[in-house]
Amino acid sequence: MFKTRITEMFNIEYPIIQGAMLWLSRAEFVAAVSNAGGLGIISSLTFPTARELRDEIRKTKSLTDKPFAVNITLLPTMRPANYEQYIDAAINEGVKIIETAGRSPEPYMKPLKDAGVKVMHKVARVKDAKAAERLGVDAVTIVGFEAAGHPGMDNVTSLVLIPIAVDAVKIPVIAGGGIGDARGFVAALALGAEGVLMGTRFMASRECPMHPKIVQWLLQAAETDTLIIERSIKNAARVAKTDFAQKVLEVEEKGTTLEELLPLVSGLRGREALEEGDINAGVIACGQVVGLIHDQPAVKELIDVIINKARLISKRLNKMSA
Ligand SMILES: Cc1cc2nc3c(=O)[nH]c(=O)nc-3n(C[C@H](O)[C@H](O)[C@H](O)COP(=O)(O)O)c2cc1C
User: Fold this and answer.
1) SS3 labels along 133-181
2) What span, in angstroms and rounded, lies between the C-alpha atoms of 159 and 179?
3) pTM tops 0.90, yes or no
4) Residue 28 has what pLDDT?
């Protein structure tokens, strides 16, 4: 059950993918997701150099013999990233699945395809999904307005975006943004998606290397406890509604430039928050689905519960329509 083109393409048991998370998507966590039958994704930008990424890939391979992916996020950063080197490191280590996000993967498609890598590209607009399909990506992830990280500038929710994306492309669609339990999983499949991507839900799992104070914040947060920053620089980002994030918004409202804003929203500040547990050290990506999260299960338990409850939901729906 729940076999789709995504489970076949990636050779995974369940169509459940862990969203790449800067500073968090490291070997132990990624391997735990893959070992539980989902697909773990390493965040390449977590590692300052391609050599360190290579070491993390090696560590992941030592912890799982299941497939996992590497994410390449093509967005403005404080420290310039050499994407070619990251991609080479992944290819040389035999990684078979790469997720690109943030910008068109066009410059990297040839080396990726030449190496036989499956490419999934994450977008927030249907037109970008279509463009990615034309470039030859193997699957596309569409994230709605609910999503943590970058949900795009159009404010269209997953419920609307997923079926429109499914109708617009022939390649399999993975649904992201607002999915946190079996109900969201079944709903995404009902909308035509062939897999789900979850970031915020996996963030509150036991293997995710995050400070307990941030976990506590997540567990008490409501669905209204996120906000969108960086809209002024056309790089909208959904983050935890903290005093720090509200200050960033105030700075933006006064009028600011990318150069002024980047140091405030920099990943390094976010890292301090996630690792030191100081919620106001920097911005923390967080999706609206946080309102649905009240526990911190192990990754395997989280995936098993989703699959088992999804089976029950499917049975209930079958009975309703019989
Ligand atoms: C803490 C955190 C960090 C993230 N970092 C990245 C990243 O570096 N690159 C990326 O493509 N997406 C990143 N994301 C977004 C997720 O991969 C995923 O697209 C998103 O969380 C899906 O929405 P959801 O949170 O509603 O499940 C991050 C999300 C979180 C919660």
Assistant:
1) HHHCCCEEEEECCCCCECCCCCCCCHHHHHHHHHHHCCCCEEEECCCCC
2) 11
3) yes
4) 98
CA distance 268 to 283: 10
Question: Residue with the nearest Cα to atom 12 of ligand 1?
Answer: 20
Give me 123's structure tokens.
Answer: 């977008």
Residues with CB under 6 A from ligand 1: 19-22, 24, 43, 45, 71, 73, 101, 122, 143, 146-149, 176-179, 197-201, 203, 285-287, 289
| Amino acid at the residue 26 | R
Record the tokens describing residue 36, joined without a space: 């539980």
Q: In the predicted model, what is the mean pLDDT of residues 274-289?
A: 97
User: CA–CA distance from 169 to each of 15, 103, 139, 163, 220 (Å)?
Assistant: 19, 18, 9, 10, 38
pLDDT, tens only, 155-168: 999 999 999 999 99
For the chain, how are helix, strand and coil distributed in percent, rounded to 5? 50, 15, 35
Q: Give the residue, out of 23, 200, 228, 241, with the most ligand 1 atoms within 8 A of its beta carbon, to mutate for a pocket test.
A: 200
CA 291 to chain centre: 18
